[in-house]
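sry for the spam today, last one i promise. struct tokens for design, 223 residues
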């Protein structure tokens, strides 16, 4: 059992990295048997890895054919931003209430470091993917501050979608700069204990990105 689990984990991580690096082409169907053979992994742990990736929306399994890279849909986008707002606001509210504790101060300083790293990227090459990585880390730190492993696991399952939706939104002119300003405002509102303003800003912060990505989906579907 342990050997199968390790093989499944190896296949899971390898396929995931191939998708992230663009080594698997969207629209192309990949055979489970051929890829399992290529990875020198038996079919069962390889299939289990693919099914796990399907649950996380990395791939779509096609019965009797294989699998293909999952293309983001309108439903994926709406679901992702609904999940993010619900979890992130809950965690920020908790962080605001506990900001004077040692743990609260630790995570606020962690958020500040992510914001500074984003400012460095803006003042440098303004790379959308590098900025998106720091954006994901900034928002993930909100979830980590609650020390709720079940909630963090849910958030991590959305990592791929969150990251690439961020990349696409940050290619919109001016969105990187606006995001940095909004992150700075989020921190200020926490320190000021302005929960109402924080709720409104987080909603707008995520809504803008959602609208950008929905427009991108519509444009893709028209082509």
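last one done:
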């Amino acid at each position: 059992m342990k050997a199968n689990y390790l093989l499944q984990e190896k296949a899971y991580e390898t396929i995931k990295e191939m998708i992230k690096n663009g080594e698997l082409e969207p629209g192309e169907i990949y055979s489970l048997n051929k890829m399992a053979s290529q990875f020198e992994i038996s079919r069962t742990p390889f299939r289990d890895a693919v099914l796990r990736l399907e649950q996380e929306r990395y791939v779509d399994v096609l019965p009797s054919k294989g699998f293909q890279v999952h293309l983001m849909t309108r439903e994926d986008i709406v679901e992702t931003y609904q999940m993010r707002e619900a979890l992130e606001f809950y965690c920020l509210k908790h962080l605001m209430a506990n900001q004077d504790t040692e743990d609260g101060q630790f995570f606020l300083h962690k958020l500040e470091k992510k914001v500074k790293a984003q400012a460095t990227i803006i003042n440098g090459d303004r790379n959308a993917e590098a900025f998106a990585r720091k954006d994901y880390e900034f928002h993930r730190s909100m979830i980590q501050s609650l020390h709720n492993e079940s909630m963090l696991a849910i958030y991590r399952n959305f990592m791929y979608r969150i990251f690439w939706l961020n990349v696409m939104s940050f290619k919109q002119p001016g969105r990187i700069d606006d995001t940095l300003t909004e992150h700075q405002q989020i921190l200020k509102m926490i320190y000021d204990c302005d929960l109402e303003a924080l709720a409104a800003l987080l909603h707008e912060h995520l809504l803008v990105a959602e609208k950008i990505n929905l427009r991108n989906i519509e444009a893709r579907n028209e082509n």
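The chain has two domains: 1-69, 74-222. ok im logging off now
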